[in-house]
Amino acid sequence: MSTTTNINYSDTDGSGNLTLYKNYFDNGGKYYARFDRRNVTIDNLIARTQKKDIGVNAITAKHILSLIKAEIIEALQRGESVNLMDLGTFYIAASGTSGNTAETAEIKKLLVKFTSSKETNEAVSKLGINRIVIADSSPSIDSVTDLFTGLNDGTLTSKKAARLDGGRLKISGSDGGIFFAECDTDGIYSEDESLWHKVNPESIMRNLSKTLEFFLPESLEIGKSYRIILRTNSRKGNEDKKTFVSAVSDIVTVK
User: Residue-wise pLDDT tens for the chain (255 aa)?
Assistant: First the structure.
């Protein structure tokens, strides 16, 4: 008689969260939604099955599933589509072609895709939504460091280098850049961009998502306070958004 191996696993409720992401390739300001993933492993599924049928042997079940997995991969390697227990179908698809005729056409690569079945789609049609949140994809400036002194105390040395640390900072786009806007003691600055001081793009030493390093514009006056304004339309994958996003630093004083 075979022994039964139990795997402990706690079920989640039949609901989830939606995150809205702004579509920067759409000038209408629309969002697209993503259902937050909670991955379930084969071990998790076996554990759930054991709750319903205590006679299920986890080791045997996992071995059988590994054999089925190997057969699915072999079928795909033969160019066959695989219907997975009416959950949906794995099939081979071509990604991108170039050339105007059959003789000049070039397939970039073949890949596996999955089409869910009607039964699978109906199973999630009544899934509940706990909450909907909007993702903030704007850049953020977390700290400003004077690279000449090594301090991040709100002061910057005239004509020397500085570093911004934060998130989504990478500068992109012809109208993007790093700007210094003179401000008062309350941090209020003019919206007139003609009064701002732009960092020369050639003075930017590091242009990364989490770090920017650059030399201060020579036009900044010693003793005056500024806000550093970052403007970019860069996004992950080095693609450019249609609209710019901005970040504003705390007050910095040039010395």
Answer: 334 444 444 455 567 777 777 665 555 567 777 787 778 899 999 999 998 998 889 999 999 999 999 999 999 999 999 999 999 999 999 876 666 666 666 777 889 999 999 999 998 887 877 777 766 667 889 999 999 999 999 999 999 999 999 988 998 877 889 999 999 999 999 999 999 999 999 999 999 999 999 999 999 999 999 999 998 876 555 555 556 778 999 999 999
Q: How far is CA 78 from CA 84, 109, 132, 243, in A?
A: 16, 16, 43, 46
Q: Could you tell me the residue ranges of all domains in the chain?
A: 15-82+120-134, 140-254
- CB-CB contact of 113 with 131 (8 Å): no
Q: For 140-254, which CATH class?
A: mainly beta
- Give the residue from 173, 245, 250 showing the smallest Cα distance to 21: 245
Q: Report the predicted TM-score, pTM, of the whole model to 2 decimal places.
A: 0.52
